[in-house]
Amino acid sequence: MSEIKTLLSSAQIAERVRELGAAITRDYEGRSLVMVCVLKGSFVFAADLARAIDLPLRIEFLGVRSYGHGTSSSGVVQITYDLGYPIEGEDVLLVEDIVDTGLTIAHLLDLLHTRLPRSIKVCSLLHKPARSVTPVPIDYLGFTIEDRFVVGYGLDRAEIYRNLPFIGTLAPHVYGGEHIPR
Ligand code: IMP
Ligand code: MG
Fold first, then answer.
1. How far is the centre of ligand 1, averaged over its atoms, from the C-alpha of 96 (Å)?
2. pLDDT tens by residue, 80-102
3. Which atom of ligand 1 is nearest the CA belonging to 128?
C-alpha cells in the first residue's frame, strides 16, 4: 500500500505494548483488573495488551459512535454497545487507540464514574497533544505523535486499514488534505 508511510513498525509497537503490560502488572499487583476497550479502534491494541498483562483480568467492550463535525469530534458520544457486566467496586482500565481532542475520553470517564468503579485509569496507545481541547489524564501511554492522520493497528480511515500490522500515515491525496471526517 504505497499511500501509507510507516510511522511505527510492528516491532516498535510490540516492544512498547510489552512495557505497558509490565507496568500495569506491577501497579496492580495482588489485584484484579477490568479492561474496558473502546470499540472499534482499540481492538487490536487491546488484544495484544491483554496478553502482556499478568493479572486476573476481565475484558469488556464499549462501543461508541462520536458525532463529529468535519475535522473534530464533538465529544458527544453515543453508546452503541454497552458493558456486559457491572464495574461497581472494580479497578477499571479504559483502553483507547488514540487520544486526539480528548473529548471522547473525557465523556467516557464521566460516564464510567457514574457506575461507581473503585478506580479508573486510562491507557492509550497514541496521543496527539497538538489537538488537545480538554486535558485528560493518560496513565499509560504508548507513543506521543505529531498532528498527522494515522491508520493501522486498529485505526481506520473510513473503516479501512484497521488490519495493517503497523501504524502509518496516509498521504494527503488519500485522506483529502486538511478536512478529515472522523
Ligand atoms: P477525540 O475525542 O478527538 O480524542 O477522538 C478520538 C477518536 O477519534 C479516536 O478514538 C479515533 O477513533 C479517532 N481518531 C482521532 N485521530 C485519529 C487518527 O489519526 N486516525 C484514526 N482515527 C483517529
Ligand atoms: Mg475511529
1. 9
2. 999 999 999 999 999 999 999 99
3. 16
- Smallest CA-to-CA distance from 159 within 182, 129, 137 is with 182
Contact criterion met (CB below 8 Å) for 60 and 112: no
Q: How far apart are alpha carbons 91 and 44 in whole angstroms?
A: 22
* Closest C-alpha residue for ligand 1 atom 9: 98
Distance from the CA of 98 to the center of ligand 1, in angstroms? Answer: 6
Cβ atoms of 47 and 104 within 8 Å: the answer is no
Task: Please state the atom number of ligand 1 nearest to the C-alpha of residue 133.
Answer: 3
Predicted TM-score (pTM) of this structure = 0.92
Cα separation, 121 vs 95, in Å, equals 9
Specify the pairing of strand 33-39 against strand 91-99. parallel
